[in-house]
From TrEMBL:
NAD(+) binds at T195, N227. The keyword Oxidoreductase applies. It comes from the Eukaryota. GO terms for molecular function: glutamate dehydrogenase (NADP+) activity; nucleotide binding. InterPro entries: Aminoacid_DH-like_N_sf, Glu/Leu/Phe/Val/Trp_DH, Glu/Leu/Phe/Val/Trp_DH_C, Glu/Leu/Phe/Val/Trp_DH_dimer, Glu/Leu/Phe/Val_DH_AS, Glu_DH, Glu_Leu_Phe_Val_DH, NAD(P)-bd_dom_sf. This is Glutamate dehydrogenase. CDD domains: NAD_bind_2_Glu_DH. The active site is at K112. Substrate binds at K76, Q97, K100, G151, S381. Keywords: NAD, Nucleotide-binding, Oxidoreductase. Homohexamer. The keyword Oxidoreductase applies. Belongs to the Glu/Leu/Phe/Val dehydrogenases family.
Length: 454
C-alpha cells in the first residue's frame, strides 16, 4: 500500500483495509493488483463556492465530490459541511463508502463530498445561498444514474431541500439526484432513522450470537447527539436498554442514575440540534436536568461510566483513542459498534481486537466497523432511489423490514467471510476483517468482470 503522508485520514482508512486483507492476498496474490487500482478514486472534483453573507460580504469555500468507484452502481455517499473537511477526509470517507455500499447488497457505487463551509452560526438565508452556490457547480457532475449524494455531518433535511430545489430549478428536472429528501417530494420513510436503527439492528445480531442476549437492561454509551446518535438512542430505549451518555462538540452528558435518557429527552435534543444549539444550553436551562445528569465539558463519554455493556460511537472520526478503548474494556464493555465512520482510532481497534483474541468464551469484546454497522443509512438511501425510479412510496413498515433484513445479511456476510478467510483461533471472528474482505471481493470481482483489471 503506497504512502500518502499528506492525507493522514485516507492513509489510516487504507492501512486498515490493507492489513485486514492480508489473509486473502496471501491466498490469492492477484488481488494485490485489484487493490492497487481500487485505492485510487475514479475521479475527484474540486471547485470554488462563492456565496454572500446577510451583511452583503463575499465568502468563498472549497467544494468537493470524490467519485470513488462506480463498478456496482452510481456513486453514492453523503455530503459533509464542516470546517474540518478536506480532501484527505473525503477520500477516507469515499473509500470506506465503496466497501460499505457493497455490503448493503444493493447496486451502489461509492463517493463522498462536501465543503469546509461551517454551517454553525449561519442564518437560514446564508445556508440557502451557500447551498445554491454549491449546487451550481455540483449539478454538473451528479445525476440519478450517475452520482446521488445524501446528507452527512452538517447536512440534514433542510440542506437537502435547498440543494434539491437548487438542482431542480437550475436543470428544469425533477429527478432522484439526492436522497434524504422530504416525505412529500420523493423522500423515503425511515431514511432519517435508518443509520441509527440499522446500527442497533446490527448489534442485536452480534448479541444474539455472542451472548445469546439482547438489549434488555444493557448499559449503553452513545457519543454525538446528531442524526445517527438520536435514532440509535431511541431504538436502544425502545428495546429496553439504558442510554447513559450523549455528547456533542462541546462536551458530554452522563446520567446520574441507571435509567438514562428518555424518549422525551431525545425529542428535546432533536429540537435543540435543529436550532444548532449545544447540549450545555439544554442542561443549563433546567434544574431537573441538572439533578438527572452531570455535564463534562470538553470530554468524550468513554471514560465517564464505570460499568458498560455497549459503546456506540456516533459523532465523528477518531473519537475513541487507545486509552479510551482500554477504559471501555476495563468497564466490562462487550460490544463496540461504530455509528460514525472510522469512529475508532487504529490504537482503539487494536485494543478491541486484542481483547477479542485473548478472551475465553463469553468474555470477548466484539468490535464492528462503521462500514458494516452503519450501512443502514445508505441502504435506505438505496431504497429511496428504488422508490424514485418507480415513482412509488413504500410504508414505514415495509422500509423498516427491508432495512432490518439488510443489516442481518450484512452481519452474516461479515461473520461468514471472516470465518472463511481468517483463521486467528479466536472464538468470535473479526468483523473488521470480514467486512473489509467481503466488501473488497464484491467490488474487485465486478471490476474484473468489467475489464478494469486482469
Ligand atoms: P450530525 O451532524 O447530525 O451530528 C454530528 C454529531 O457529532 C453532533 O452531535 C456533533 O456535535 C458531533 N460532532 C461532529 N463533529 C465533531 C467533532 N469534530 N468533535 C466532536 N463532536 C463532533 O451528523 P450525523 O449524525 O449524520 O453523522 C455522525 C457520524 O455518522 C459521522 O461520522 C457520519 O459520517 C456518520 N454516518 C452518518 C450517516 C447518516 O445517515 N447520517 C450514515 C453513516 C455514517 P455538534 O452538535 O456540537 O456539532
Amino acid at each position: 500500500s503506497h504512502q500518502v503522508p499528506n492525507e493522514p485520514e485516507f492513509q489510516q482508512a487504507r492501512d486498515e483495509v490493507y492489513v485486514t486483507l492480508q489473509p486473502l492476498l496471501e491466498k490469492k496474490p492477484e488481488y494485490k493488483r485489484a487493490l492497487e487500482i481500487i485505492e485510487i478514486p475514479e475521479r475527484v472534483i474540486q471547485f470554488r463556492v462563492v456565496w454572500e453573507t446577510d451583511s452583503g460580504e463575499v465568502r468563498v469555500n472549497t467544494g468537493y465530490r470524490v467519485q470513488f468507484n462506480s463498478a456496482l452502481g452510481p456513486y453514492k455517499g453523503g455530503l459533509r459541511l464542516h470546517p474540518t473537511v478536506n480532501l484527505s477526509v473525503l477520500k477516507f470517507l469515499g473509500y470506506e463508502q465503496v466497501y460499505k455500499n457493497a455490503l448493503t447488497g444493493l447496486s451502489l457505487g461509492g463517493g463522498k463530498g462536501g465543503s469546509d463551509f461551517d454551517p454553525k452560526g449561519k442564518s437560514d438565508r446564508e445556508i440557502r445561498r451557500f447551498c445554491m452556490a454549491f449546487m451550481r457547480e455540483l449539478s454538473k457532475h451528479i445525476g440519478a444514474d450517475k452520482d446521488v449524494p445524501a446528507g452527512d455531518i452538517g447536512v440534514g433535511g433542510r440542506e437537502i431541500g435547498y440543494l434539491f430545489g437548487a438542482y431542480r430549478r437550475q436543470r428544469n428536472e425533477f429527478a432522484g439526484i439526492l436522497t434524504g429528501k422530504g416525505g412529500d417530494w420523493g423522500g423515503s420513510l425511515i431514511r432519517p432513522e435508518a443509520t441509527g436503527y440499522g446500527l442497533v439492528y446490527y448489534v442485536e445480531e452480534m448479541m444474539k450470537h455472542a451472548g445469546n442476549t439482547d438489549f434488555t437492561g444493557k448499559r449503553v454509551l452513545v457519543s454525538g447527539s446528531g442524526n445517527v446518535a438520536q435514532y440509535a438512542a431511541l431504538k436502544v430505549i425502545e428495546l429496553g436498554g439504558f442510554v447513559l451518555t450523549l455528547s456533542d462538540s462541546k462536551g458530554s452528558l452522563v446520567s446520574n442514575d441507571s435509567r438514562g435518557f428518555t424518549k422525551a429527552d431525545i425529542g428535546a435534543i432533536a429540537e435543540l440540534k435543529l436550532a444548532r444549539k449545544y447540549l450545555i444550553d439544554w442542561y443549563n436551562a433546567s434544574s431537573e436536568l441538572q439533578s438527572r445528569f452531570t455535564y463534562h465539558e470538553g470530554a468524550r463519554p468513554w471514560t465517564l461510566v464505570q460499568k458498560v455493556d455497549v459503546a456506540l460511537p456516533s459523532a465523528t472520526q477518531n473519537e475513541v483513542s487507545g486509552e479510551e478503548a482500554k477504559a471501555l474494556v476495563a468497564a466490562g464493555c462487550k460490544y463496540v459498534a461504530e455509528g460514525s465512520n472510522m469512529g475508532c482510532t487504529k490504537d482503539a481497534i487494536d485494543v478491541f481486537e486484542a481483547a477479542r483474541l485473548a478472551a475465553k468464551d463469553g468474555e470477548a469484546v466484539w468490535y464492528a466497523p462503521g462500514k458494516a454497522s452503519n450501512c443502514g443509512g445508505v441502504a435506505v438511501s438505496g431504497l429511496e432511489m428504488a422508490q424514485n425510479s418507480q415513482r412509488i412510496k413504500w410504508t414505514s413498515e415495509e422500509v423498516d423490514a427491508r432495512l432490518k433484513q439488510i443489516m442481518i445479511n450484512c452481519y452474516q456476510n461479515c461473520f461468514d467471510t471472516a470465518k472463511l478467510h481468517v483463521q486467528d483461533g479466536a472464538g468470535l471472528p473479526s468483523l473488521v476483517a470480514g467486512a473489509n474482505i467481503a466488501g473488497f471481493l464484491k467490488v474487485a470481482e465486478a471490476m474484473r468482470d468489467q475489464g478494469e483489471w486482469w
